[in-house]
Design a protein that fits this description.
Blueprint lengths: L20 H17 L4 H32 L24
Helix pairs in contact: 1-2
Catalytic activity: Exonucleolytic cleavage in either 5'- to 3'- or 3'- to 5'-direction to yield nucleoside 5'-phosphates
InterPro entries: Exonuc_VII_S, Exonuc_VII_ssu_sf
Keywords: Cytoplasm, Exonuclease, Hydrolase, Nuclease
């Protein structure tokens, strides 16, 4: 089965999910822009919406997996989770003007 990465106006919604999270978010933003532009037909809008739902679910799955990995890495010796807030990086000249 041939794989194609078309970004035309067809809106068939059969494009595979992008390989990484940032690309998934970028693709979602593109879909939102196309939907908001009004350039799509009803059928094209529905296909784009369906693809957006699939991409959103994929992005949420990736976030859930990342959270699980972080929790696994921060698990304490006794088996409990040792949750600590991330330290904010030092500000660089933000209020020194």
């Amino acid at each position: 089965m041939a794989e194609h990465h078309s970004q035309g106006r067809g809106g068939d919604g059969d494009e595979p999910a992008p390989a990484d999270f940032a690309a998934t978010v970028e693709r979602l933003e593109q879909l939102v822009e196309r939907l908001e532009s009004g350039e799509l037909s009803l059928e094209g809008s529905l296909a784009a919406f369906e693809q957006g739902v699939r991409l959103t679910r994929d992005a949420q799955r990736r976030l859930d997996e990342a959270e699980l990995r972080v929790r696994t890495l921060t698990e304490g010796e006794a088996g409990g989770v040792d949750l600590q807030p991330f330290a904010a990086p030092p500000a660089e000249d933000d209020g020194d003007r």
